[in-house]
Amino acid sequence: MKNIFLIMVSLILSIAMLGVLVSCASGESAEDITEPKVGIANVPAAPTPIASPDKVKLALDWFPNSNHLGLYIAEEKGYFAAENLEVEIYTPSDPSSVLATVASGSDDFGMNYQPDVLIARGEGVPVVSILGMVQHPLNSLMTLETSGLDSPADLKGKKVGYPGIPWNEHALASMLKADGLKGLEDVELVNVGWELGSSVMSERVSAIIGAYFTHESISLENEGYPVNVLRMEEWGVPDYYELVMVTSEEYLSENPGIVERFARAVSRGYVEAIRDPQAGVDILVKYAPETDEKIDRPGADLLQQLWQDDEGKFGRQNRDKWVGFAEWMQENGLLSEDVDANKAFTDEYSLK
Questions:
Q1: Which residue range is the domain that position 117 belongs to?
Q2: CATH number, position 76
Q3: What are 18-29's pLDDT values in tens digits?
Q4: What is the SS3 assignment for 122?
Q5: N or C: which end of the chain has fewer CB within 10 A?
Q6: Residues 132 and 179 occupy one common structural domain
Q7: 111, 130, 105: which is closest to 72 by C-alpha?
Q8: Tell me, what's the pLDDT at 35?
Q9: Is 46 within a domain?
């Protein structure tokens, strides 16, 4: 019996030892699987650093209005951010200084006017247009509908108000000549400054030139004074870009990548504005609560077509329009003969 008992105890101890050995073996296998071997291949790669956005300043030509919808759309919808740009959009205290501040580098980009860009280049200011923002003149000749003055020739012997801008005088002269008059000698010019609307409403003058038909004409109609709009390019003045986006020659040369990304984001914004101008005004109001929607909503609808060229593309600029207007300015003594209009713009960054 004693022998049998000893045999049973030995058997039990053997089975127990076998279980311990199996357990240890299993533990080692699990450990081998769950604990990776340390080596260079297993060290996680460092995350790729995200470049800080390039900061740029954009000076507007005037207070925010429907002309600027695409800019605020680009900001609101992240088109600038998508191009890794941080854009400061602001209105200078003196908008007439935009070309000077862009040329000096105080501002990187600016909204301005084709005639002014040409004049500035004639004075040695090295700015260049990178986008044609508004494809045709907004500046126009206006008369009250009740006046019966429906064409430039009807203004013979009348007073015409203007803002004191010299080239506006020559534009009026071309319009008068295109309708058979001799020119400025047939009218009386009155410098009314920026009181264009009030001067024609009060009948201090019979017509005004220098007013935008996408703004002043709407404002006048809202006041109960609907007007006739005589567009410059239909009466003897060469077609031109009312608004352009400019940068300096130096900035363009040193930062072509930023210029390309900026132009692309701006273009995306204006394509959206063309698609839905009223949605663009909604965004404008968010950034500029002082916006007069009674003017800028109808203004945006008028601009919808003016933001596009004949092929429906935004931003394009062509040689004929730049050279043709420059030649007209030179013929009228407004621009020196040595100004090369071909160097005043580039169409490299517009939508193709």
A1: 54-136+241-343
A2: 3.40.190.10
A3: 343 333 334 333
A4: helix
A5: N
A6: no
A7: 111
A8: 38
A9: no
Most confident among 4-18, 26-40, 225-239 (mean pLDDT): 225-239
**Final residue belonging to a domain, choices 178, 212, 234:** 234
* Per-residue pLDDT at 39: 38
For the chain, give the mean pLDDT. 89
Report if residue 205 sits inside a domain: yes
Taking alpha carbons only, the member of 148, 141, 147 closest to residue 171 is: 141
Mean pLDDT of 213-240: 98
Q: Is 85 inside a domain boundary?
A: yes
Q: Residue 105's CB: how many other CB atoms inside 10 A?
A: 11
Integer Cα distance of 142 and 207 in angstroms: 5
25-48 average pLDDT score:
41
Q: Are residues 330 and 306 in the same domain?
A: yes
Statement to judge: residues 143 and 132 lie in one domain: no
Question: Long-range contacts: 174-178, Cβ < 8 Å, 24+?
Answer: 174/232, 174/235, 174/236, 174/237, 174/328, 174/332, 175/141, 175/230, 175/232, 175/235, 175/236, 175/237, 176/152, 177/236, 178/152, 178/235, 178/236
| pLDDT tops 90 at residue 31 | no
**What are the φ and ψ backbone dihedral angles of 46, each rounded to 5 degrees?**
-65, 140
Tokens describing residue 208: 């005004």
pLDDT at 45 over 60: no
Domain end residue (candidates: 211, 234, 257): 234
The span from the CA of 236 to the CA of 108, in Å, is 35
